[in-house]
Amino acid sequence: MESQYFSFQELCNITALPSQTIIEIVDQGIVEPEGTDPETWLFNTQMVSITRKACRLHNDLEIDWSGIALAISLLEELEEIRHENQQLKAQLDRFIAG
Amino acid sequence: MIKDLLISQSTAIDLSTRLFKQALKITLKLDLKINCLKKPLQNNGLIMAFKDYYKILDVAEDADSKAIKTAYRKLARKYHPDVSEHKEAEEKFKEVTEAYEVLKDSEKRAQYDEYRKYGGRSSSQQDGSDGNAQFEGDFSDFFSSIFGGTGPNKGQQRQNYGFTSQQSFNQRGQDIETDLPVFLEDTLTTDATKTISYQLPYRDAQGHISEINRTLNVKIPAGVVNGERIRLKGQGGQGIGGASNGDLYLRIRLVPHPLFDVEAHNLIITVPLAPWEAALGATMEVPTLTGKIKLTIPADSQTGQRLRIKGKGLLRKQGHGDLYAVLKVVMPSATSSEVKKQWQQLASSAVFDPREEWSK
């Protein structure tokens, strides 16, 4: 199994983003890597995809970073609620059927 | 076609006498128009659909730039693939972006208006929907036929598309993300392997880009959860000029099970009970993911009650989740006259008001 964690430098490389952008994303709390400063930061695969999503939204919709932080957390919440809703629907179907 | 051309040429001359200074510009536009008319929206033998950018953005033909910007922003938020659940979000978003790219720029807009007025009409039976159009990069062939090229590079390359045509010579390969459907049973063992196939953009020595299919055997780590991403280093798009390959990210999607629902690391099974089993209690065999177990239902059980079966859930990083048996009292569908008699006896002797709440 490959390493599922990325250092700050690795994240910059694979996302092709300037380090300043990633620092901004971390400062806004959009992703919360392990570690206390850029030298020790560790990002997991989930954070890589959130970083990318944040940048797409920032570029495509011209939203500033604090707006992105809000959008990302609301999107996450929405995804959780959708997932929960799906689960509850499935359970309800089992309950009503038969 | 020739008639069209003559009309548009004479129109251009009228304009040029009125506004002499713009004559050169109009001639340029005319050149472009003639080019379009010579090859009427054709590409690889396919007739391209005319795109009505005003319709796409849902703005009037004389809308000002502010109205266009507002309309674009609204639609971009609505159809952004990262936000929208719409089936065709990505296509819609591209279309909206393309429309805005043209209409926000007064020069491009004038060019497009001209084209729309004279050139577009003959092939505009199909409107905004791009039935036959083939996408090349981010913008449509329709766009390229008017403005040339494949459209501006929007800074960051979008993740799901192939290479853009503007890559430098030393560039890391593209990362690919794809769903990996996994059966619940597969998450329990440490050596479950799955064969996956996915498409990879491929660039040959001449720089032509095509898609190739790649097949791979993947070991599924024990204890994966829904939505988790697994990274396979170097299995993404090829690097250019000696740069490393991109990675492949597999997003775990747990396949719905016919018997079990999933709640975090716990499993849920619905257990149908006869009314007398619920009343008197019962012992029965209940399926788990790894085989059957014996379950004792206590007397006076209710629909909706949950019984916890420890350690029979999904694998966690340490240990197992639990299995919950949710009880569901079910009535027999047909009642024989003998059973009916027994229900009647029960009805007269039992003191039970199921609608007690209502009489409070």
Describe this structure in words.
- The complex is a heterodimer of chains A (about 100) and B (about 350).
- Chain A has helices at about 10-15, 20-25, 45-60, 65-95, and strands spanning about 5, 40-45.
- Chain A is mainly alpha-helical.
- Chain A has a single domain (about 5-95), classed as Orthogonal Bundle (Multidrug-efflux Transporter Regulator, Chain: A, Domain 2), CATH 1.10.1660.10.
- In chain B, helix 1 (about 1-20) runs antiparallel to helix 2 (about 25-40), helix 2 (about 25-40) crosses helix 6 (about 105-120) and helix 4 runs antiparallel to helix 5 (about 90-105).
- In chain B, about 30% of the residues lie in helices and about 25% in strands.
- Chain B is of the alpha+beta class.
- Chain B folds into 3 domains: about 40-145, Orthogonal Bundle (Helix Hairpins), CATH 1.10.287.110; about 175-255, Sandwich (HSP40/DNAj peptide-binding domain), CATH 2.60.260.20; about 260-350, Urease metallochaperone UreE, N-terminal domain (HSP40/DNAj peptide-binding domain, Sandwich), CATH 2.60.260.
- Chains A and B meet through helix 3 and helix 4 of A and helix 4, strand 8, strand 10 and strand 11 of B.
Short description:
Chain A contains four helices and two strands; from the N terminus they run E-H-H-E-H-H.
Give the topology, please.
The complex is a heterodimer of chains A (98) and B (360).
Chain A: E1 5-7, H1 8-15, H2 19-27, E2 42-44, H3 45-61, H4 65-96
Antiparallel strand pairs in A: 1-2
Helix pairs in contact in A: 3-4
Chain B: H1 2-18, H2 23-38, E1 42-43, E2 46-47, H3 53-57, H4 65-79, H5 89-103, H6 106-119, E3 135-136, E4 139-140, H7 141-147, E5 176-182, E6 193-203, E7 209-219, E8 229-232, E9 248-254, E10 260-263, E11 266-273, H8 275-280, E12 282-288, E13 291-297, E14 306-309, E15 323-329, H9 337-349
Task: Supply the key terms.
heterodimer, A: 98 residues, mainly alpha, Multidrug-efflux Transporter Regulator, Chain: A, Domain 2, two-stranded antiparallel sheet, 67% helix, B: 360 residues, alpha+beta, Helix Hairpins, HSP40/DNAj peptide-binding domain, 3 domains, 3-stranded mixed β-sheet, 9 helices, 15 strands, 30% helix, 24% strand, elongated, disordered N terminus
